[in-house]
Amino acid sequence: MASRDLCIPLRKKHGRLASCRSIPILVDADHKSERLGDLPKLADYVVCSTKFPQAWTEAPSIPSALVSMLLRLPNIKFAVVTLGQEGCIMLERSVNVHGRLIVGTAEKIPPLELLDTTGAGDAFIGAVLYVVAICTNMPAEKMLPFAAQVAAGCCRGFGARTGLPYHTDSRLTSFLS
């Protein structure tokens, strides 16, 4: 058995353990795969690439795919679709019948500051995870621009980590105060 084939059962096992202990689970879904299996059903949050929601749900548009995801995955609190330099779209589940569709804009980076986009999506997801795990009172309207700012910082350096901002970065101060 290849090591990558072993990872999926371990993820599911760890997902079940985390779920039983009320530890929040965020699934980063990049593309439709049978290997993803039932992992999204254990998730509290889903952040996915542009193509994943429609491929996974077979819905005709991203917003309708987000609705389908919330209907299929009753445990998730929100699903975010990243759109690269176009920003993101998030559907947040409400306690009543209605949900909230929130559009997040991407941080515009001046051409001379844009060095490398490697890792920007992972930086965005990391910032979302930071908010749901540590800054639990931050509203979605603040979380999405915060995550966009972290991703933009990543693009201002070479490689996936050199541009990542520290929590003391002046661009993040308004989000973290």
Question: What does this entry look like structurally?
Answer:
- The protein is 41% helix and 13% strand.
- The chain is an alpha/beta fold.
- The protein folds into two domains: 1-98, no CATH class; 105-177, no CATH class.
- It has a five-stranded mixed beta sheet with strand order 1-2-3-4-5, with helices on both faces.
- A hairpin with a 7-residue loop joins strand 4 and strand 5.
- The longest helix has 18 residues, at 3-20.
- The protein is globular.
- Mean pLDDT is 87; it is low at 1-7.
Helix content: 40-55%
Quickly give the structural class: alpha/beta
List the total number of helices. Answer: 7
Strand order of the largest sheet: 1-2-3-4-5
* Number of separate strands: 5
Beta strand %: 5-15%
Secondary structure blueprint with pairings:
Layout: H1 3-20, E1 26-29, H2 39-42, E2 45-48, H3 52-57, H4 62-72, E3 78-82, E4 88-92, E5 100-104, H5 120-133, H6 140-155, H7 173-176
Parallel strand pairs: 1-2, 2-3
Antiparallel strand pairs: 3-4, 4-5
Helix pairs in contact: 5-6
Features:
177 residues; alpha/beta; 2 domains; five-stranded mixed sheet; 7 helices; disordered N terminus
Brief characterization of the structure:
One of its GO terms (molecular function) is kinase activity. The chain is an alpha/beta fold and 177 residues long.
